[in-house]
Amino acid sequence: MEPSRWKSLPLSKAYQLLEPGPVVLLTTSGKGRNGRANVMTMSWHMMVEFEPPLLACVVSAADFSFAALRQTGDCVIAVPALKLAPTVVRIGNCSGRDVDKFEKFGLTPLAAEHVAAPLVGECFANLECRVADTGFVKKYDLFILEVLKIWIDPKQKNPKTIHHHGYGRFVVDGRTIRLGSRMR
Amino acid sequence: MEPSRWKSLPLSKAYQLLEPGPVVLLTTSGKGRNGRANVMTMSWHMMVEFEPPLLACVVSAADFSFAALRQTGDCVIAVPALKLAPTVVRIGNCSGRDVDKFEKFGLTPLAAEHVAAPLVGECFANLECRVADTGFVKKYDLFILEVLKIWIDPKQKNPKTIHHHGYGRFVVDGRTIRLGSRMR
């Protein structure tokens, strides 16, 4: 669990983690009025720019994380592998208003380098992000985030991510195919 | 290939098709100054609202489809299954400026109900969309689309989608797991 064993990945590779559409966790710090760090489950995210890497995500104004994201201006996107799937669902089924989710689910919050939000020790990838544009928050709860740092846990080899199809039905990564592409 | 055999899916299920992050095709009509229908490959998309279903996607200003999308205000998002993967990559490797991609790749354009852009006969799902908001186009090439109609091909059973990890490396849908979730 020591972050010291983690490797930093070039920012230009952020899209290789997020573009395939995995279910992710979003953490926020306790710096805002909410007062405690929180973690939520999220599938509504996409890449917007390769480098510096920008992504868009939707965090509902009804979510406990929304106020923290607005007030603190930063978050971490953590990518869980299959083993964490049951925990990921339980995280999505309760609110940080009622419970300390890091404690309840035995997740390890680790200090990030550039942001106040915690990394998740159990995830194979953690992306430190700052809110870069709130122009679409009022209309769509849509945040533009800039990725500042990417951490990879080299001990989690070939992690399989999960993809949500609704109501707790997830498709797990299957085989990899390679097709000659000129596009990154 | 008759669209008559296709089933219409309730709009509230759009998210079940797009939230898992499949590589999709985006078609545009020849109504704009471009003059011909076109199809591009896209992975930068996400859901924004359940119902009426809104999605966001990034179509680069460098893409031939960009002008058509701006001028005509509509498009189709078509979801290809594994069998089409080699074609999907070839579609991404050339431009509609140089070639009629429907003809070149033997794709069947079919008339949509609400939009001028064509459905793709070979895809297992087709979503008719209109551009709902261009407020983030100038800054990020980001379009907000509203889904008007969803078509499903019932002959393609349990289609496996593909997820792009960069440079022509794709992960194919594997097994499905079900975990009790209170969230849709």
Helix percent band of chain A:
10-25%
How large, in whole angstroms, is the Cα Rg of chain A? 16 Å
Coarse morphology of chain A: globular
Overall residue-averaged pLDDT value of chain A: 95
Low-confidence stretches of chain A: none
- The termini of chain A sit apart by 32 Å
> What is the strand content of chain A?
35-45%
Helices of chain A, by number, come to: 5
Structural class of chain A: alpha+beta
Order of helices and strands of chain A: EHEEEEHEHHEEEHEEE
Major protein interface: A-B, 55 and 55 residues
| Quaternary structure state of the chains depicted | homodimer
Instruction: Characterize the largest beta sheet of chain A: strand count, sense, and whether it forms a barrel.
Output: 8 strands, antiparallel
**How many beta-strand elements of chain A?**
12
